[in-house]
Amino acid sequence: MKAMILTASDEYVLDDIAEPKPGPGEVAIRVAYAGLQWGDVLVRQGHFPVPRPFVSGFEAAGRIVAVGEGVETTRVGEAVATLTGSGAFAEVVVADARLTFPVGDFPLRAAAGFGWIVPTAFDLVSTVTRVRPGESVLIHAAAGGVGTVAAQLARNAGAKRIVGVVGRAEQVAYAERSGYAAVVTEDAFPDAFGGERFDVILDPIGGSARSASLALLAPHGRLVAYGNIATFDDVSASVNGLLMEGKSILTYNSHLLSRTHPERLAASARAALAHLVRGDIVQDISVEVALEELASGVERLAEGKTLGKSVVRVAA
Fold first, then answer.
1. Predicted structure pTM score
2. Dihedral, 88, 92, 95, 97 alpha carbons, nearest 10
3. What does 171-184 look like in DSSP terms, one character per residue?
4. What pLDDT is stored for residue 316 in this prediction?
5. Which DSSP string corresponds to 243-289?
6. Domains of the chain as residue ranges with CATH
7. Residue ranges of the chain with pLDDT lower than 50?
8. Distance between CA atoms of 24 and 236, rounded to whole angstroms?
């Protein structure tokens, strides 16, 4: 089968490799589309110690063509979206059956975009920070895949005010389409918000943005860190200072959750997928590249040029 290989020199090479077979509790999926996400950038940059050569790609949509021991054979032929640990940038990927979800007639291109983005946004809003009616929410990376979906979910949860921060001025209008009351660029943050405080802050940025965000938390506010786009430098906070105002710092790591409690991630993913299929939220797939163009898609994402979600066309 055709697969995109990430080499030891950080290059993508399209090659023929053996088709993988599903083991116990697994399914094999013929991939129509794969999703592109920040994890692909981190792998290419060497932040995750994966052995090279490596078939990357962490989310896909297609049809199940084989099942392993313990998986119902009736799943063969099922149209699905899946969350994987690797291998999605190939004609066939093997995935955990528990993290492979039927999508029915939902378009496979849109199902590939669902990926880790929509379940992450759902968990950040619904199970981690538990946004309540009337609360105010600040979302960093507001023009990205998680940011655009999280704003809609926060609105659906009853948030009274949702504001966003983006990297560049040309991203402002795009982010505003997701229902933000205001969007500012990172060079204007945090001064643009004056003395405003927020009940919930979603932060995948890290570094100075994280420190500034902590200062904007309202009493009983919750900041969730779920990435380090800007820097992996650590950020310190006084626990006693947080305690005095009932503030909380939370973290969310969906990849870890998939290995430690896959059933919890699966439950969130099913709920998130139902929101998407019903049309409660809209996900904008703004970039589509062919498998052989994968490198350009990853580079665009790394440079912050991608708005919304990117997908890779494998065998549509």
1. 0.90
2. 130
3. GHHHHHTTT-SEEE
4. 64
5. HHHT-EEEE--HHHHHHH-HHHHHHHHHHHHHHHHHTSS---EEEEE
6. 2-115+284-313 (3.90.180.10), 118-255 (3.90.180.10)
7. none
8. 43
